[in-house]
Each structure stands twice: as C-alpha cells, then as structure tokens.
C-alpha cells in the first residue's frame, strides 16, 4: 500500500499539470451537469413497507380523489377580539379566503370550515384544510407564496391568519452563516502551519472535493428522488474530512522537507505514509456511511451514499491532486519556520501531556470516564420523533398556527389521523363503516371521528380521527397502535380491514423503524471497522479500545443533544429557537458519521505510535514519541472539524442544527477526551500488550504496511531497491 502510494504521489507531483487539468475537467463537467440536469429535492420522509405507506398506496389506487399522498395545509383563521367568525363580517371574510385558496396553484380541494363544522366552541377560530394534488417537495416557493397571499386581505381587516402543514415547509438550505466554520478552519490552519500557502492548500483541495461531490449529487437529483438533507450532510462531511486529510499529508510533506528531502521525494514519502493512513481512515468513514443502506430506510441510505461518495472523492483528491498542487507550490509550503536542516528536538506540549498522562494514567482514566458518564446521563430520558409544526421557530407561521389551533381545538387538531377502511370483502359495507367509526370513537384519547368519505366503487372509505393529544405525544402513539389493533376485531365481525396513515402516523412509523434499525446498524459498522482496524494496527486490543472509546463518545454526545434540544439548556447561547423530541434519524446518523470520524483520529494518532514501535522503540517511548508527532496535527484537525460542524448550528432547519451540534460536540469529546486522553493512558497501562495479536491470526491477516515500514527500508537503504522504486514511479 505505502509503496504504491509513494509512486502515485511522485507521479502526480511530476505530472501536476495533467492531474490538475483532469480534476478541473471533472469539476466543470459535473458543475454544468448539475446546472442543466438537476431536479427538485424532496423533504418527504417515508419508508416503503410500513402500514402508513401501504395505506397511502391503497388510497392512491382506489381513492385518488382523497389526494392522500399530496401535501396538506391547515389554515387557522382567528377573528378580531370582540367578534366571531360566524357573524356576518367574519363569515364573509372566511368564505372569501376559502374561495381564493381554491384557486391557488396545484390545490386539489379546500374543506370549508362551515361545512366541516371546524369552528371553535367560542366561535372565534375557523380551521380550513387545503389538499394538494402534488407532494410537498414538488411545491415551489411560488406555490407556497400563492397559498399565503390571500391571507393579506383578511389580515387587513383585523383577522389573524396562520398556516401549518407540510405544504408550508420549504426545502432547507445552507446560508452564509455556515461558512463561518470554514473561516475558523482557515485561521486554525494558518496558526498550525505558520504559512498562508500551506494553510490555503487544504482549503483549496477540500472545496474542490466538495464541489465535485455536490455537483454529482445535484446531477443525480435529476434522475433520482433525493432527500433535501442529502447535499447538506455531504457538504458537512466533505468539508471536514477534505480539510483534515489534506492537513495530515501536508504536515508530513513539511516534515520530510525539514529532513532535507527534495520536494518530489517529500511528496512521494508523504503520500506513501500519511496517505496510507488517509486511505484507511477514509475507508472507515465510507463503511460507516455506506452502511446506512442496509437498514432499510431509503432516504437515510441516500444521505449515507452521497456523503460516502464525497468522502471517497476527498481521499482521491488527497492522493492525486494534493501532490500535484504541492508540485506547483514546492518549498513555499514550508514557510519561514521550516529549515532544510534538522533542528535540535524540543519538548513539545504534546510530549509533556503524554508523559503526564503516562505518569498518572489511573487517575486520568477515572476522571475522564466519570466526566463522560455524567454528560451522558440526560440520554436516559431521550424522546425521539420527527419535526412538526410544534417544533417550528416561535415566530414562524407554522408555530403560530399550531398554538392557535391547540388553544381553540386541542393539540390533536394539529395531527389528525387518516383511517382507511377496506370494505371490499365485507357483505354489508355500510354496517362495516359504522362499526369502524363507532369502535374508534370509544378508544381513549379520541376527540372526534368525522363521517366517512367513500370512493365511487364503495369499497374504500376514509375516516379522519382527531386525537386529544399532540402529534408528538406518547398518547397519540398509543392511539395509533390501538386503532390498528381494532382491524382484527372489525375483520372478524364484518370482513372489513383498517389501516392508519397521515403525516402523524407516518412519522410514528418512521421513528419506530429508525429505532429498530439502530442496534443492527451499530453491530454492522463496528464489526466491519474492527476487522479493518485489525489490518491497520495488527492488534486485537487497539481496535477493541477504539470501539469502546467511540461508544463512550456517542453516549456523551446523546446526553448533550438531549440537554440542549430536548431540555432547552443553552438554547439562547447556541441560537436554538425551539425544543422538543430529538429527530428520529439523528441517533443512527450520528452513530454512522461519528464512528467514521472517530476512527480517523484513532488511525492518525495510533499509526504513528505503531510506526515508532515497529521501528524498535519501547512501548512507553513509542506512545510518547508517536503522540508528540501526531498530537499537534490531530488537535488542529479536530478544531477544524468542530468549526465546520459548529457553523451548521446557525442553520434554519432544526434537523441541520442538531446534526451540526451533535457532530461538533461528538468530535470534541472523541478527539480531546478519548483519543488525546484515554488512548495514551490505556496505551501506557497496557504497554507491549497493546500490540498483542494471536500468531494464527497474524499469519492470516495480510500485511498492508500502513506505517510505511517496508517503504522506509527500501528508500533509506541505498542500492537497487531505491532505484527500482524511483524508476517505477517515472
């Protein structure tokens, strides 16, 4: 591996113009494709095979007039103080608004609140329901503006008009605020390298990698239905790993220049040694992200594959384009601090910290583990759910509509359940529908059941059930389960079947599916990565320690996420506008992404320790020396990742905010508590035992030479071997 990458690095260095031209052509081609062929991104969250999705498919086939799969909007109309919506002025305003809503683009039907009797007991609030013939992600900004525009006339007469539902939700976008993370990353790079040229190269290659990946994603959106969060996750991960991978190789390149190597040789050695670590670090991230495809959740699989491809691009750029750019920059990358002669070795902060940890390893271990356990405690109270209008920003029209409807009709009015009655096998369909409505009305937490709407064939009906509790409550989850359990009773009595759907039921199904998939997914990625890390470190103990440390990082991160996004701690400081249940997709997404990133630091830090060990250093000294060489770069890399992820806390979407915070906090804990504290403490405690590997397993595992031991022997020993390697790279 190291020998091949050494040759690739030298080749890219010499053929730098060609390599740069190829990557420029790829970037331009994908960019043009994205501009001309991209499609609309989706904000729908569905999982094929769930009962809610099967019911939607059934309605689409047998009752298309119901527009069950289309977007919906709830329009809340509140009369001015001292008046009602049922007096002459109020009724005229409501009817005028409903009439205008019917003419909005793509609107299939509007339920008149007077006909549906959706008037609050105090007669001050009316609730209209708008159904679209298109899905929510198919609506444009113009469609959403056309929906809300008629409200201005009613507002001018003193009425309050607010809108809720998925039809109002736009596609989340990244803004200029997320770029603050990149700016902080640039400052960290300048401080780390002391050179504008050296600091600029990782930023340049990362931006090229992200541009290539994003171009491919938007090009694919023209042919596939992609979730709107797909490019955002790819942007997050691509920026972070792109900068980090280039940082490690550039740091090694500067180290080789310091030893007196000529630039081409330095580029080859940097790619052969640090590049090998980049390959295996990238593979752990790719495994974790691509593993999201096996949990049976399409939108999550799409996000994982897109981010994994972006990481793969970052690795390829680090191994090819980066050496080419180093060829253009030459020794200017070294900056003023670097001299081409070896300077006396000075004791660094990293070495002092490593020796301190080694001397006090037991107390350090106990304090670090206790601290992580305390931070993880809030995770015991984690509640999972998907976003709805209750978690929207306080000043948004969705949140205002939710609050008015909750106050006037009860919280359940914001999350109606759609019950599909399949009466095709019933001998008396009318009796079956009546019994279905009667049985459901008797269940706990049911506020109302509307009269059934029947299709033209008379074999499928649709009931709307209004719960007493809100869409995110456990009572509503229990109600959905209770209604579904009534299906067997109804079928035995009448031959008809029940199914529950609607946005609230679909969110419950998605959350349950995500929760069930978490442990199998965790076992999958941990198992695959454990094997990969055994190949890298040729040890059983080091991968085991890395995995246990990762689980501690995840637990602490879950605790912090619950404290902020569920309990509301530090929300003003972090700019979090609303709290509520944690997004159902966040835990499994965090496990995948954080595992890959955590293994990055494990690979970069411990491979240098192993490199010293295989070159003959005693275990204790190998730990200290490896830590001294790797600590500065790992700290810089962690600060860069934290900065990039933290920039996304400023996004408008609650999901993006929570992902950004979780990844930033997770990297903070994993890099500084686990890798920079627990790792040296455990390595010092285990000594030579850290590198234990059964002899039979040692014979089976291939030697991938990540540390570049064979490469170093070939290059440092004059003779035929060196001429052969250099000649082969020409």
Automatic annotation (TrEMBL):
Keywords: Cell membrane, Membrane, Transmembrane, Transmembrane helix. It is found in: Cell membrane. Residues 181-328, 520-685 form the SSD domain. It is a multi-pass membrane protein. Its main location: membrane. It comes from the Bacteria. GO terms for cellular component: plasma membrane. SUPFAM superfamilies: Multidrug efflux transporter AcrB transmembrane domain (SSF82866). The chain crosses the membrane at residues 179-199, 206-226, 232-253, 274-299, 305-334, 362-381, 518-537, 549-570, 582-601, 633-656, 662-686. PANTHER family: MEMBRANE PROTEIN MJ1562-RELATED (PTHR33406), MEMBRANE PROTEIN SCO6666-RELATED (PTHR33406:SF11). Belongs to the resistance-nodulation-cell division (RND) (TC 2.A.6) family. MmpL subfamily. This is MMPL family transporter. It comes from Amycolatopsis iheyensis. The lineage of its organism: Bacteria, Bacillati, Actinomycetota, Actinomycetes, Pseudonocardiales.
């Amino acid at each position: 591996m190291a020998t091949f990458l050494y040759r690739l690095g030298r080749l890219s260095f010499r053929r730098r113009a060609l390599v740069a031209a190829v990557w420029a052509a790829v970037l331009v081609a994908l960019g043009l494709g994205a501009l001309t062929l991209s499609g609309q991104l989706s904000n729908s969250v569905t999982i094929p095979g769930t009962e809610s999705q099967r019911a939607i498919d059934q309605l689409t086939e047998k009752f298309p007039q119901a527009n069950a799969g289309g977007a919906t909007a709830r329009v809340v109309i509140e009369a001015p103080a001292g008046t009602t919506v049922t007096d002459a002025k109020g009724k005229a305003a409501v009817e005028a608004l409903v009439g205008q809503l019917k003419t909005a683009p793509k609107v299939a039907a509007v339920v008149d609140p007077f006909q549906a009797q959706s008037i609050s007991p105090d007669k001050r609030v009316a609730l209209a329901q708008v159904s679209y013939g298109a899905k929510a992600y198919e609506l444009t900004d113009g469609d959403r503006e056309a929906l809300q525009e008629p409200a201005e006339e009613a507002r001018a007469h003193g009425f309050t008009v607010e809108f809720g539902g998925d039809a109002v939700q736009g596609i989340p976008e990244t803004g200029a605020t997320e770029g603050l993370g990149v700016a902080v990353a640039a400052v960290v790079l300048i401080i780390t390298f002391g050179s504008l040229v050296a600091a600029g190269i990782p930023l340049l290659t990362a931006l090229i990698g992200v541009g290539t990946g994003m171009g491919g994603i938007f090009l694919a959106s023209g042919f596939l239905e992609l979730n709107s969060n797909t490019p955002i996750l790819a942007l997050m991960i691509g920026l972070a790993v792109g900068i980090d991978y280039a940082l490690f190789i550039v740091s090694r390149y500067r180290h080789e220049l310091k030893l007196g190597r000529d630039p081409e040789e330095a580029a080859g050695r940097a790619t052969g040694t640090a590049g090998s670590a980049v390959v295996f670090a990238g593979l752990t991230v790719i495994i974790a992200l691509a593993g999201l495809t096996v949990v049976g959740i399409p939108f999550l699989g799409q996000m994982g594959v897109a981010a994994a491809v972006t990481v793969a691009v970052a690795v390829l750029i680090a191994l090819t384009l980066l050496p080419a750019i180093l060829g253009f920059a030459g020794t200017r990358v070294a900056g003023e601090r670097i001299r081409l002669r070896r300077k006396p070795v000075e004791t660094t902060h990293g070495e002092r910290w490593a020796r301190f940890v080694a001397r006090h390893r037991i107390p350090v271990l106990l304090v670090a583990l206790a601290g992580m356990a305390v931070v993880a405690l809030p995770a015991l109270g984690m509640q999972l759910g998907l976003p709805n209008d209750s978690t929207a920003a306080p000043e948004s029209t969705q949140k205002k509509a939710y609050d008015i409807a909750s106050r006037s009709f009860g919280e359940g009015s914001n999350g109606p359940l759609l019950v599909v009655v399949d009466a095709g096998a019933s001998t008396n369909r009318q009796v079956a529908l009546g019994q279905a409505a009667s049985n459901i009305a008797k269940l706990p937490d049911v506020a109302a059941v509307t009269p059934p709407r029947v299709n033209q064939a008379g074999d499928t009906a649709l009931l709307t059930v209004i719960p007493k509790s809100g869409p995110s409550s456990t009572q509503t989850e229990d109600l959905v389960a209770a209604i579904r359990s009534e299906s067997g009773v109804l079928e035995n009595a009448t031959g008809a079947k029940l199914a529950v759907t609607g946005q609230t039921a679909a969110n419950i199904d998605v959350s349950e599916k995500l929760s069930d998939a978490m442990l199998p997914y965790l076992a999958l990625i941990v198992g695959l990565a454990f094997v990969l890390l055994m190949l890298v470190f040729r040890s059983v103990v080091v991968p085991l320690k890395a995995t246990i440390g990762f689980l501690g990082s995840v637990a602490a991160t879950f605790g912090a996420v619950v404290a902020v996004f569920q309990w509301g701690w530090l929300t003003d400081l972090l700019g979090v506008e609303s709290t509520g249940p944690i997004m159902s997709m966040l835990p499994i997404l965090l496990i995948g992404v954080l595992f890959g990133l955590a293994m990055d630091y494990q690979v970069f830090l411990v491979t240098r320790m192993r490199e010293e060990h295989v070159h003959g250093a005693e275990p204790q000294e190998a730990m200290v020396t490896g830590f001294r060489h790797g600590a500065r770069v790992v700290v810089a890399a962690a600060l860069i990742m934290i900065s990039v992820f933290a920039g996304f806390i400023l996004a408008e979407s609650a999901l993006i905010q929570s992902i950004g915070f979780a990844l930033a906090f997770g990297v903070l804990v994993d890099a500084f508590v686990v890798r920079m504290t627990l790792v040296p403490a455990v390595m010092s405690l285990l000594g030579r035992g850290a590198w234990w590997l059964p002899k039979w397993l040692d014979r089976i595992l291939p030697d991938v030479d990540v540390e570049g031991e064979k490469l170093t022997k070939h290059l440092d020993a004059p003779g035929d071997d060196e001429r052969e390697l250099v000649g082969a790279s020409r």
